[in-house]
């Protein structure tokens, strides 16, 4: 009995000392691990920096960069012209074409009675949207216009000059008659033209004159609309003339879509070509179907 009690007394201190040693050993291991990690990071800081950079780059990727701005939306400048009895048709066409971003010039020629021109001016002045936006202008001093003569070209150039003076913030000029009606909305037109080069002109043209060489280019005509206040048809003069050699003639449709730089070239004429051709086409049958085509195709 005495020996067993003695053994128990010896075991207790051994167990306690073993626990203390184990605790000290584990603590020293943990401290050594922390110290070694600290020393490793201090020797090779690139790994921690790389980790921070990776996190920063990922945050950048998640945020993303804004897309580049797209091209500005195009604007159109319109001439809508009419004659006697065209008031209602012109008004309908104007409303179908209207968009607050565009510019509009309307014209009723001298053949239209004063009552119609005054009624058109009154409608524009009293229109709430037109007054608010201020982008519809009527040529109050009406021109005499003969379709087959140069007066139609002069009227178109007049409208171009008015549009350039009022506001140069447009991209294409479109001439229409009161009888025209759009097949697409202005929003669709803006979308279609938004990706196009703003220097493009849309002009039907050909140098193959065919019968027009003999019937239109060679005869000399006089347009009474140049000097008369009443409308009458063109008449022929003699003698006939030969085809020009200083430039090449082109023909096409009188209805075009012209870029603003080309309109400026025709109106301001820093080159003499537009003026020279305008004088030539003064005596040309159906000059609206050839003037702009010949100008744009002879620019060097």
From TrEMBL:
The keyword Zinc does not apply. The keyword Transferase applies. Pfam families: Branch. It comes from the Eukaryota. Keywords: Glycoprotein, Glycosyltransferase, Membrane, Transferase. One of its GO terms (cellular component) is membrane. It is a single-pass type II membrane protein. InterPro entries: GLCAT14A/B/C, Glyco_trans_14. It is found in: Membrane. One of its GO terms (molecular function) is glucuronosyltransferase activity. This is Uncharacterized protein.
